[in-house]
Design goal:
258 residues
């Protein structure tokens, strides 16, 4: 299927690896020019070289998108994107009792304020041009809160509520805003979490992986490639009637009917 977005311009945040890279790869295959950002220059530049092999224009921007300086650099490199993929690493796990107000502020800044700032800077230009696709990568915790991830639960749910009305307003100009709610995907973050669990329980990493996979109806972790393919479709010409939605991609893990 031709997604009809060849020649469009996309900003993909935190795109040097993991789910962000999966999104960038899928969009690049569709002929979309990519501006990608991440904090680590070496990995980011390596990813940029990989994407350039598809023949599209790729612009890497080294910086922390959760800071105002990082966002300014990103928008300077691509001031008028047609597609915006908001993505940032989640705050650390812990116990509610131990979280400080600074912990909450950092969580909100990274996972709520940052995507709102990028949306505010780009959505009105999209509306004027008559096309735009914004995808917020959030978490399955939007549907079902995750224990020990209260910082993430709160900030990501806040973002979801903040853009719900805007998504409906923007749709009249062929601009959509949707959320993707990933469950367990085979990324560095998941592997790091599993490693910590293995160390805490003094068992092999393979034991933790087997237990986690067994809890997923699909019997496996998701891949960045299949995640990127879903995001690319939401960014396509064919998805203009989908907006204000939060799509759960978790291998069937969420137990509800809705």
């Amino acid at each position: 299927m031709d997604l009809g977005i060849k020649g469009k311009k996309a900003i993909v945040c935190a795109a040097s690896k993991g789910l962000g890279k999966g999104c960038a790869e899928a969009l690049a295959r569709e002929g979309v020019d990519i501006t990608l950002c991440a904090r680590g220059a070496d990995v980011l530049n390596a990813t940029a070289r990989e994407l350039s092999a598809t023949g599209v224009k790729v612009t890497p921007v080294v910086g922390d998108v959760t800071t105002e300086e990082g966002r300014k650099a990103l928008l300077a490199a691509c001031p008028n994107p047609d597609i915006l993929i908001n993505n940032a690493g989640g705050p650390p796990p812990g116990d509610f009792k131990g979280f400080t107000l600074d912990d909450w502020r950092k969580a909100v800044e990274g996972n709520m304020i940052t995507p709102i700032a990028l949306i505010h800077a780009t959505v009105y230009g999209m509306m004027e041009r008559g096309f735009g696709r914004i995808v917020n990568i959030t978490s399955a915790s939007i549907k079902q809160p995750i224990a020990a991830l209260e910082l993430s639960n709160g900030a990501r749910l806040g973002l979801t509520g903040a853009v719900a009305v805007l998504a409906r307003k923007a749709s009249r100009s062929n601009v959509t805003i949707n959320g993707i709610l990933p469950g367990p995907f085979d990324t560095d973050r998941l592997r790091g979490t599993s490693q910590k669990l293995a160390e805490a329980r003094k068992v092999a990493l393979s034991v933790i992986d087997a237990e986690r996979k067994a809890s997923i109806p699909a019997g496996r972790f998701g891949t960045a490639a299949e995640f990127g393919a879903v995001v690319a479709f939401l960014c396509s010409q064919h998805a203009g009637y989908i907006t204000g939605q939060n799509l759960l991609i978790d291998g069937g893990g969420y137990p509800g009917s809705l």
